[in-house]
Design a protein that fits this description.
By secondary structure, the protein is an alpha/beta fold. It contains 12 helices and 10 strands.
């Protein structure tokens, strides 16, 4: 197991693998990890009092070192629920990143518009909506509309963190958000129903609708078979073939609350299984994130 519980019952997430395998796959220049997190350090950037779990301290320097090992030059840092709506750690990473990072925020309908403007200026380009019970109550429809309204002037994407049947139940909401919609972690579908099950079918229909993107990240969260995650990689390969211009790839480093900690080097090497052609890998790793996340310049 990769976590235990405090005496008060709050889960404690395990740290990432300290010694991942160096990947054999060489990634294109300016490749982007489109889903990762930083945590604290807690003595500098305290965690939210009402957090659902205690994360390991993983700083921007830790993230940069992991990306350097893996061959990733850009990243989208997703605000963690462990920090709530206090974006101090994210903003510090964006300031120190020298243009290599973009961010995804956690907002509420009560977030002042001037704070959204400040986040945009710092490099935030998306907002995440959580629909997993262990991370708190799901936003009501009016809250979703209000948050989308806050970010609409900036053209941010709206990331939907869903699992199981939620990809079916929220399909109309995702499709009708009126902004680029991004589905995290392949919608965390239940693969016991196979690749022709109703959840995967709904996910593929959304991806085919034109305004929806999918992150081919966190195979360890949905695989029923374990490493090298043949079932989850099969789904990722199917989605990448469906819409090569609207898929992104990410590590989910440092992998909070996973049942078994993955090897980040293996995750990189599996990219070749997801997108066998070099052109498709460049789309997924460089061109697609550059377009969605407003990165400057062209790949070298």
């Amino acid at each position: 197991m990769t976590s235990h519980h405090t005496p008060r019952g709050r889960p404690v997430a395990a740290p990432p693998d300290p010694d991942p395998t160096p990947p054999g796959l060489r990634l294109p220049p300016l490749s982007c990890d489109a889903h990762c997190h930083i945590f604290g350090p807690g003595d500098l950037f305290p965690y939210a009092e009402d957090r659902a779990y205690d994360p390991p301290d993983v700083s921007e320097a830790d993230l940069r070192a992991r990306h350097d090992l893996l061959g990733l030059e850009r990243a989208l840092i997703v605000q963690s629920a462990a920090h709530g709506t206090d974006h101090a750690a994210l903003l510090d990473a964006l300031r120190n990143g020298g243009g290599r990072y973009r961010g995804v925020a956690l907002l509420t309908p009560d977030t002042p518009p001037h704070q959204v403007a400040e986040l945009h200026e710092a490099g935030v380009r998306g907002v995440r909506l959580q629909f997993l019970p262990h991370l708190g109550a799901a936003p009501a429809p009016e809250a979703i509309r209000a948050v989308a309204g806050l970010v609409r002037p900036y053209g941010w994407h709206v990331a939907f963190h869903v699992a199981g049947d939620a990809v079916i139940e929220l399909a109309d909401t995702i499709r009708g958000i009126g902004l680029p919609a991004v589905i995290d972690h392949m919608a965390r579908v239940d693969l016991r129903a196979g690749l022709d099950g109703p959840q995967v079918t709904a996910l593929r229909h959304l991806l085919g609708s034109g305004g929806v993107w999918v992150k081919l990240s966190a195979p360890e969260r949905i695989s029923r078979t374990g490493p090298p995650y043949e079932d989850a990689i099969g789904l990722a390969r199917l989605l990448a073939a469906d819409a090569p211009e609207r898929v992104l790839w990410g590590t989910d480093f440092p992998h909070p609350n996973v049942p078994r900690m993955p090897d980040d080097g293996l995750l990189v090497d599996l990219i070749e299984r997801i997108a066998p052609e070099e052109k498709a890998r460049r789309l997924m790793l460089v061109d697609n994130p550059a377009a969605l996340l407003d990165f400057p310049g062209e790949a070298r």
